[in-house]
Amino acid sequence: MNSLNLRPIGVVRCQISKSSEMPKQGIPARVEVFSEYAPGLLGIERSTHVMVLGWLHQADRDVLQVRRPRYTETEVRRGVFACRAPVRPNPLGVTIVKLLNVEGNVLHVDGLDMTDGTPVLDLKPHAAGFDGVFCARSARDLSRLADPDSEHALRSMVREAENFHGERCAGVVAGARMVYHAMKIFGVAQKDPRVVLSVGEDGCMADSVQALVGATFGNKRLECGSQSAFVLSCEGQELWFRPRYLEHTPLEELLEQDIDALFDCEVSSSSLL
Description:
alpha+beta, Elongation Factor Tu (Ef-tu), domain 3, CATH 3.30.1330.130, 2 domains, six-stranded antiparallel β-barrel, five-stranded mixed β-sheet, 6 helices, 21% helix
C-alpha cells in the first residue's frame, strides 16, 4: 500500500484546549485556513453548514472498544467503528457546523467540538439532499436511557431537532422535552418503531417531535391531530401534551423547568404515573 500523506489545510481556534472540557454539542469557533489554501474557499459562503474534518491530536490511537454509559442495552462495550468516540486508530473527526460568516481565510462557525489547535484536514459543504438521511438509525436512536436525568441526552436531542427545523426556538426545545419525557414514561428508545405521533397545531413543535421519533406518513407512525394537543402512543398507551404559552420563555428555562410547567400532561393509564 502506498504511504498516506495528509497535509493540514488549517487549524481550529476556540476557547477550549482540553477535549475533556468540550461540550458534546460543540461551541462557537474559528477555522483559520492557511493562506496557501485560501483560494479553495471561493464560494463557501453560499453554504449554511460545512463539514469540518479534523485530526483529533489528543485522542488515544490504541483503543478499539469503549463503554457507552448513557444508554442501557445488553452490550456493555462497543467497537470504535460502531460509534462516534474520538479514540480510534486514525483519529479523524467529522463535525457538521453552522457557518456564521467568512472573513478572508477565517470561517466563523457554531457547534464545533474540536479543541483549540486541532489540525483541519478538509472542509466540505454539507448538502441535505446527499448527506442528510432522515430514515437513518444508529444504536443511540434504538437504545433506552440508562440515566433518566441525563442532561447530555436531552441537549443532544435539542440539537438534532434544531438541525431538522432550521433554528433553535421555544417550539424545538419544548418538542425535545416532550419526547424525552415520553422516553422516560414509556421506557422506550428515542426512535422506537412502536411509537406513533399525532401532531398538534404548533409547527415548530411538530418538526421537533417528528425529527426526534422518526415518524413519517410513509412508515404509518405520523398522524395529524385535530386539536392543539400532541399525542405520543406506544402499544395502546397514550401520553397527551397540551402546550402552555412558551413563546417568551428563555430557552435555558425551557430545558430546566418541570415538564408540568411546559405542558398539561395526561397519561391514558394511571399505572404509568
